[in-house]
Amino acid sequence: MKLLLHACCGPCACYPAQELSAEGVDFTLLYYNPNIHPYKEFKRRLSALRELAEKRDYRLVIDKTYPLEECVKGMLEEPSVRCAFCYRMRLRYTAKYAADHGFTAFSSTLLYSPYQKHELIIQTAEAAAEEFGVAFYYRDWRPFYESGKEISLQLGLYRQPYCGCVFSERDRYMEWKRPKEDECKGPGLQDGAAGVNGKSEDRPFVRINKNIIQLGKQDTILFK
To answer: For the segment 109-149, what is each residue's pLDDT rounded down to a tens digit?
Structure first.
């Protein structure tokens, strides 16, 4: 078997690549992840994968295509979940590249992470395999997540703190907890009482100190 292994990042590739190498599988890593935002993060993950490939002497194919507008548009228009677009875009590319360059099968390190939608990845990969006429090589590497994590730490690879797209970055870092009704009132202020500059506050807010007031988040923005 000549395997093309799509790699989302260095840490996720550690265990699958080590196991495939130990088993004598002829494999090549492929970096194609234009869904990763921002571009600085895209480059950091690519650098980590290159570092892994250099330290372990793995073959690596890199495609630095970065169609930001198309990716965001695709995720926003995805009728199911935005992850479906990211999976489909990358796995279709991997399957096509494998078919066009003499590989007999393809797979992805997305199957290693317990934080990904495993069954959706399988369904998407199988559809890509049928579309491009190349076999999908399935392995469930999730039970070895901690082992792979240890390898990445030993190698000193950069470990990303969120999945990849701009929406997952927001979900990872943004505070989603809305202030409770009683928390929205500053000291000595009740509903309808004077707020900033003596004006009545229509929106909830939190008084951080005597000089700073944080307004509640809005659901929409004003374009005009």
So the answer is: 999 999 899 999 999 999 999 999 999 999 999 999 999 99
We report the CATH number of the domain holding residue 144 as 3.40.50.620
Q: Which residue range forms the structural domain that includes residue 108?
A: 2-172
* Domain-located, residue 86: yes
What's the pTM value of the predicted model, to 2 decimals? Answer: 0.77
Indicate whether 222 belongs to any domain: no
32's CB contacts (< 8 A; 6+ apart) are: 6, 63, 65, 90, 93, 94, 97
